[in-house]
Specification:
Structural class: mainly beta
Distance between the termini: 83 Å
Number of strands: 22
Strand content: 35-45%
Order of helices and strands: HHEEEEEEEEEHEEEEEEEEEEEEE
Helix content: under 10%
Number of domains: 4
Largest sheet: 7 strands, mixed
Number of helices: 3
Radius of gyration: 40 Å
Length: about 475
């Protein structure tokens, strides 16, 4: 770079600063390097303050301990209360911005940030729940239970936002000229520019208080023997069900009200309590009659659940459609699987052929997954036609509705839809007519169903 140009560069940059940042018609053209250097200088004026950090959340309170109690008439005092959650920490204030020194004739806002948000308070701990075994219900009056819930911690306070920078010079005037000095087209205009103060950062929001824990729940059992653990639900891969029985068990309870009336005065516990009714035990076995071997569905998850009616319900994954029937015998539920189809194989229909014309016009659809002997399939069609011979440019809907079952024939995995037998005007079925056909197939197995839309466009051809 020549020394003469280098000495004039600051002046050139200053002039380009005006014309680049505040464009006006007829501005003097500045070299790209000067414009770029100005932009970097202008954008780096001062430094924004940093946002304050959020306060740490408070830790949750510990839960009370569940306990088994065998009463014999002697007084018992139990404290199963949950612990309080910790308070959240306060958020940190935002850092102040570095306003620096404002350059002449620059319009540049400096915005201070928000303060940090306060931390959420910890949740209160749940109270423990006692299971009381008794022979004489009146003996429960000698048991004092305190099973209160822990209080939630308080949320931390939000940090304070800091003040934005103020302009050191609020307005200035810049003259811009165009044309050649001394000529009639030479004109100059004055324009006023202003500097706006940076906005103040807003204060951070306060953290939420933690939620209160749950009260303990009383359970009573008229027995001297402790209840066996129950296994009401089992999840496993479908391949694990073959040639095996699975035992499920469940302790059935009745819900009652008035827990504190059973215990010593001053006891603190939830009003609802559970009274043991009976133990349910049931075995489950699957009988596989689907043509595909059960091992081909090996990773599919099955959930077995024993309900209060002593029935075992088998729930299969959403992406596996199963149809079968349940049979219950003494302490054994048998589920026979007649059909099992992966969901992805349900909607694999495709157009195979569009043939003939007039009342013989038909659309053939093939099931690529070959599951049509198992699935129930219903069709709905929207038939639109365009007669190019008569100059019609738009498609007109000639029929929209379900296709009656008698107009659908199935040969193994191939469906033939007799479109020409629908109530469609004859002129829309002639050879040469362009048609747009949309078929919606609804396929179902048991309680599950899915829809697939199949589209076809083309001209009706002359029969061979």
């Amino acid at each position: 770079m020549h020394n003469a140009f280098r000495s004039k560069l600051p002046l050139l940059l200053t002039f380009c600063l005006f014309t680049s940042f505040f464009p006006a018609s007829g501005s003097v053209l500045c070299p790209a390097v000067a414009s770029d250097e100005y932009y970097k200088i202008a954008r780096n004026y001062g430094r924004n303050g940093r946002t304050g950090t959020d306060g740490r959340e408070g830790r949750d309170g510990g839960s009370g301990e569940n306990q088994n109690i065998f009463v014999n008439g002697s007084p018992v005092n139990l404290d199963l209360s949950g612990k309080d959650g910790e308070d959240g920490e306060d958020g940190r204030d935002g850092d102040k911005p570095d306003c620096g020194s404002q350059r002449d004739n620059v319009n540049h806002d400096i915005n201070a940030p928000n303060g940090g948000n306060g931390g959420k308070g910890g949740n209160g701990g749940n109270a423990g729940s006692p299971i009381v075994y008794y022979s004489n219900l009146a003996d429960l009056r000698n048991i004092s239970v305190r099973a209160t819930a822990g209080e939630g911690g308080r949320g931390g306070r939000g940090g304070n936002g800091t003040e934005g920078c103020n302009c050191q010079r609020r307005s200035w005037e810049v003259k811009t000229c165009k044309g050649t000095p001394g000529s009639p087209d030479y004109k100059c205009t004055d324009k006023v520019y202003r500097c706006s103060d940076g906005s103040d950062g807003t204060d951070g929001s306060d953290g939420k208080d933690g939620s209160q824990g749950r009260l303990g729940t009383l359970s009573i059992v008229n027995s001297k023997e402790p209840l066996a653990a129950d296994t009401p639900t089992v999840k496993l891969a479908i391949s694990e069900l073959t040639n095996k029985q699975f035992n499920l068990s469940k302790n059935k309870w009745n819900l009652r009200k008035g827990a504190t009336s059973l215990l010593a005065p001053g006891s603190a516990i939830a009003d609802d309590y559970r009274e043991f009714e009976q133990r349910l035990e049931e075995a489950f076995q699957i009988v596989w009659q689907e043509r595909q071997p059960i091992t081909s569905f090996g990773n599919q998850v099955v959930t077995l659940n024993l309900n209060d009616n002593k029935q075992v319900e088998a729930t299969f994954a959403e992406d596996l459609w199963v149809e079968g029937n349940t049979q219950s015998q003494t302490n054994l539920t048998t589920f026979t699987v007649n059909h099992a189809i992966p969901k992805k194989d349900v909607t694999r229909l495709a157009v195979a052929e569009f043939a003939d014309a007039g009342q013989n016009l038909n659309l053939k659809i093939v099931d690529l997954a070959a599951k049509s002997d198992t699935l129930n399939t219903q069709f709905r069609v929207k038939f639109r036609a365009q007669d190019s011979l008569r100059g019609f440019s738009d498609y007109k809907t000639e029929y929209e509705g379900d296709i009656p079952n008698e107009l659908v024939t199935r040969d193994y995995n191939r469906f033939t839809l007799a479109l020409g037998k629908l109530k469609i005007p004859d002129e829309a079925l002639h050879p040469g007519v362009n048609v747009d056909i949309e078929v919606v197939a609804t396929r179902s197995l048991g309680i599950r169903s899915a829809k697939q839309t199949i589209s076809w466009q083309g001209a009706i051809r002359k029969p061979r």
